[in-house]
Amino acid sequence: MANYSFQDDLRQVAMMDGAAYQKTDDDIRNDVMRRVKERDLPIEPKQVTVQRITTPGLAAVYVAADYSVTVNLPGYSFDMHFSPTSGNK
Measuring CA to CA, which residue among 82, 83, 22, 72 is closest to residue 52? Predict the structure, then answer.
């Protein structure tokens, strides 16, 4: 469930920070990390990708994260891998 909420967080960050041209990639990454802490997800800053795509008439921000979570069930545990992404045009 947290991954779905985090996907929405990434979409919001991409939209809001993508429209703010004065924000640096590190500012965007810090905004994502603030959301990570709110969701208590096991993501480090180096696992967050921020990419700007700027061409005449088009400015876009791409934000992605890559992480795994260990799920423990009685007598069994496994890792679930997540790669949420979002972009803004």
Answer: 22
